[in-house]
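Entry for adenosine-5'-triphosphate complex. Fields follow.
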Amino acid sequence: MSFTEQDSDVRESDAPESDVQPASSVAAGETSPDQPAARGAAPESRREPAVGVHSDTSECIELRRLHRFFGDTRAVNDVTFSVGRGQVFGYIGPNGAGKTTSMRILATLDLPSYGDAFVDGFSVVNDPELVRKRLGFMPDSFGTYRDVNCREYLDFFARAYGLVGRQRTRRLQWVLDFTGTSGMAAKPIRGLSKGMKQRLCLGRALVHDPAVMILDEPAAGLDPRARIELRRMIRELADRGKTILISSHILTELAEMCDAVGIIEQGRLLATGSVDQIQAETQNRSELTVRILNRHDEIITCLSGLDENIPIDNPILDGQFVRFGFSGNMADQAAIVTHFVTHGFHVAEVNAHKKSLEDLFLQVTEGLVQ
Ligand SMILES: Nc1ncnc2c1ncn2[C@@H]1O[C@H](COP(=O)(O)OP(=O)(O)OP(=O)(O)O)[C@@H](O)[C@H]1O
């Protein structure tokens, strides 16, 4: 999904009213989807000055049983995870998994159907104003301010965040220097390359020095050098104490810079932990490929008759090859070959390969697009 900059200014009308639950009944994620959601306009508490009830958690980003439904689509379906201060968390999933929807809720551009999310301890439902002050959001598509130059663009946002005088001038210069855009401060945005626009957009998210940054696919469309540079900037921001949630389709792209990752598909969080942890859990898993020379149509049926203690899953027929996930030992592997041979199949080849990070992603997710 992509959202334009204009979207960010229409948060309350953007959320379908019928899906919005009043803030009072979703505080701290106390409700469950089994409870009927009350219908109506945006919560009353939105229009009152933010009081600010700080959550007792030490986590800097927290999603608690977050749900967001669009009609029958469960874009975010009971997602819970948290990110500690100064950590980089990679949010990974295929198209339509629910990444942008979760991030928009964190950025207070949308409301949860149920549950809640917290930024630096403040609820996006009850304290959106306080959340916004602490959060920098880089959406997955750049806005349409084509005729202003980079400095004017950043200056606009700095003013919007209430920066004044020398503080604003110093901050703007820092952002231009940090993002490597000072050389083009006077250049109109319409003349910027994709990479430069991404830098400027990162600068915009940084302009008020937020504690938390939400970056929606910031590396999309960048060349390899620009990706490396972006990784360096993100790591440096985390080293300076910022907490960062960053999304991508590509696990390997995030693996190096993330302290932890969460894999989401069809609105559900399928796995969380450090890349090493997730890899360790699947370490003894491999994919077996068996080449059979006869009766290809019957191979999958034959496999279903295998001793059920032999751990295989998701068999697929691919021409002469049958491939399946395997987490057994060499004896199990031998038993599979014996099973094929005793059922009259001509086995020509057996190969096992360990899962790479990409395989791991494909294994955890099923590539389902909603
Ligand atoms: N405003 C909306 N109205 C209706 N459906 C929506 C809306 N926003 C998102 N969805 C649906 O919610 C699901 C999750 O979308 P989302 O954009 O969060 O996925 P994503 O993981 O960010 O995907 P991508 O990587 O392609 O950007 C999709 O099925 C999408 O069509």
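NOTE: The mean pLDDT is 81.
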